[in-house]
Amino acid sequence: MNDTAIRDPELTRARILESAFELFVDKGFAAVSVREIAERSEVTKSLIHHHFGGKEGLWEAVKEQAFARYYQGQKEELTRAERPGPELLMNGVVRYFEFLRDNPGVVRLFAWAHMEGDSSCSERDGQLVGLGAERVRQAQEKGLLRADVNPTHVVTIFVSLCTQWFEAREHHIDWPGMGTDDEFLDDFLKVFMEGLLPRPDQPKA
How many CB atoms lie within 10 A of CB 114? Predict the structure, then answer.
């Protein structure tokens, strides 16, 4: 075991998280062993259990750390928003799209979680989706967004499409006429945001 593990527990914990993230991104949760993580991070298996309680606890910590930067920034913006409306929703789409674009490892981590049927991160996701949907509902009540769509579906649509764009990019990148990330985002915002504009003959929510 590396002496640093004894001298600096926080640095050791960070090294374990980094090694686990790399392995989980490459292989998914099921195919990675605690032994592999221990070897890559140069610690003993018992030290991993000490810090995280086992592979499952480490998997949860890796996902939480990977999502934390987007989660905190988006939660703060949604919480302090004084006038929910189209601009707030558009900012949320752009923030999520750019987060995925700038963190390809996180995209792969999400893909593994989805393929392996992992639902353990739904609570944290659900909190953010619930807050976003509430802001959409408030905008609908003010007549700023169309009232005949489910607010949770609004959030789910942009989250799903942004995620799918990056998960499948290597598949569709050479399709005839396919644009860049920025071009796709621009077109998506046109369709998505214009589709949510209020209809003149529809009552408020």
Answer: 12
| Helix, coil or strand: residue 31 | coil
Amino acid at 112: W
Residue 76 identity: E
125 and 72 in contact (C-beta within 8 Å)? no
Contact in structure between 159 and 152 (CB atoms under 8 Å) = no
Residue with tokens 């890796």: 62
**Residue 131 belongs to domain spanning:** 9-196
Cα–Cα dist 67/76, whole Å: 14
Q: Considering the domain boundaries, does residue 18 fall inside one? A: yes
In a domain, 3, yes or no: no
pLDDT tens for each residue of 11-69: 999 999 999 999 999 999 999 999 999 999 999 999 999 999 999 999 999 999 999 98
Question: For position 183, which CATH number holds?
Answer: 1.10.357.10
The radius of gyration computed from the CA coordinates of the chain, to the nearest angstrom, equals: 20
CA angle 170, 175, 177 (to 5 degrees): 125
Q: Which of 70, 88, 165 is nearest to 134 (CA)?
A: 88
**Model pTM?**
0.88
